[in-house]
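Researcher: Sequence recovery benchmark, item below. Answer with residues only.
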């Protein structure tokens, strides 16, 4: 494939250890027309190590959102006790409307613009919404043209290019371990609990699979095309197969269709948002039926909803812990690439469980020490660890 090198502009501004980069990415579309997209990489903090965070392809990606997500990564890597800082990136585009070859050209042009900003010991991207292991393979290939073969420059790669066994499932598996730990604190288990899951992409589909395999009843699921419900529990393996071949949940026979927006207020014990940010807000928070919310998505609950839900007694497991399984296994992938020694999947999953349990214990200790909820406990833990590294470096 020929990649047309097209003129570009790049704009950076930075504070002490923070850098915002906006790049213009122009590509020829399959029909010969030219399309221009804006890409971002926002690096928030590197006190604890190289910056780390996903790259999102979504029409609503904007600098404020990417900045907020980059900050979340700083606290998340600290809560997970992995030696990274935080960053996030994205391109304002609708990946559903681009062909594979257009996505490849866009990813390669974006990489040409940011290759000097990322690096094995500087900033290590990974998949997020709208991107996947194929996107990482293109970034790796393009980056390697400038810097030589560098598998550790991205994580979430295909296994054949140095990806880690278990990374694909890791965020969903981490969500499962986190939910198990939280429910155990409340004298409950996954078995027979009713789950409603918003989003059936990487995170949502794996989380649903693990809940189902452990006896949980997945009573409602949605994707961007629609939502389905079944009070007796959806046959998750059948739904996974259906979604793979139809790219949509619509017309799945093992449940009844329902309005997309009703998923979040559907009757269930555990609500698991696995799609966009800000979906729980003052418009719907009072109507949420779940007793537990597991923030598998980043920032699904806005501050007003957080207050309403807390007053209702809903227990919220915060994103910077609940979805940290993905970045934790990304860390294992990076370690394997640097060591040049690949782990077995059993070891990856065993270590993931150990890290998730250890972080949960540390958050609970913070909650007890400061008499606060899980979100405040997790943020206090993360911010303290970053502050300590910042002080030790002599930056403050
Ligand atoms: N991937 C990872 O390792 C990690 C992801 N996260 C977070 O998890 C969330 C999901 O990411 P990921 O699974 O990777 O992304 P994917 O792109 O794989 O999946 C996103 C899912 O959300 C669905 N969706 C989009 N808009 C809506 C909507 N309005 N209503 C219902 N469903 C919707 C999509 O539908 P459709 O399938 O029809 O496109 C898709 O099923 C994001 O917030 C991300 O930041 C956090 C940590 C790590
Ligand atoms: O795996 C990673 O490095 C980053 C994952 C991510 O973007 C996230 O946790 O939000």
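Model:
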């Amino acid at each position: 494939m020929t990649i047309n090198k097209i003129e570009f502009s790049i704009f950076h501004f930075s504070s002490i250890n923070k850098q915002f980069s906006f790049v213009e990415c122009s590509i020829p579309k399959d029909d010969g027309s030219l399309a221009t997209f804006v890409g971002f990489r926002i690096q928030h903090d590197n006190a604890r190590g190289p910056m780390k965070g996903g790259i999102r392809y979504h029409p609503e990606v904007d600098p404020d959102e990417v900045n907020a997500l980059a900050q979340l990564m700083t606290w998340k890597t600290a809560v997970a006790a992995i030696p990274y800082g935080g960053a996030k990136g994205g391109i304002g585009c609708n990946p559903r409307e681009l062909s594979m070859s257009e996505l490849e050209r866009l990813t390669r042009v974006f990489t040409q613009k940011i290759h000097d900003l990322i690096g094995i010991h500087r900033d290590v991207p990974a998949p997020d919404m709208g991107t996947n292991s194929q996107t990482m393979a293109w970034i790796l290939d393009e980056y390697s043209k400038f810097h030589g073969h560098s598998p550790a420059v991205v994580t979430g790669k295909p296994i054949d290019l140095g990806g880690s066994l278990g990374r694909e499932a890791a965020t969903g598996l981490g969500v499962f371990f986190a939910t198990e730990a939280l429910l155990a604190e409340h004298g409950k288990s996954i078995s027979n609990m009713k789950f409603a899951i918003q989003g059936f992409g990487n995170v949502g589909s794996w989380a649903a699979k693990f809940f189902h395999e452990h006896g949980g009843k997945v009573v409602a699921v949605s994707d961007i095309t629609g939502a389905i419900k079944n009070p007796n529990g959806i046959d998750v393996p059948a739904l996974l197969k259906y979604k793979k071949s139809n790219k949509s949940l619509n017309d799945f026979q093992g449940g009844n269709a329902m309005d997309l927006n009703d998923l979040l207020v559907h009757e269930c014990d555990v609500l698991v948002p696995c799609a966009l940010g800000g979906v729980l807000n003052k418009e719907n928070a009072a109507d949420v039926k779940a007793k537990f919310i597991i923030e598998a998505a980043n920032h699904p609950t806005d501050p007003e909803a957080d207050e309403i839900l807390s007053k209702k007694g809903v227990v919220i497991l915060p994103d910077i812990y609940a979805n940290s399984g993905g970045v934790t296994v990304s860390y294992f992938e990076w370690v394997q690439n640097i060591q040049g020694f690949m782990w077995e999947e059993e070891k990856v999953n065993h270590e993931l469980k150990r890290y998730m349990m250890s972080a949960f214990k540390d958050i609970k200790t913070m909650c007890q020490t400061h008499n606060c909820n899980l979100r405040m406990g997790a943020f206090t833990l993360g911010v303290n660890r970053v502050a300590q590294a910042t002080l030790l470096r002599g930056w403050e």
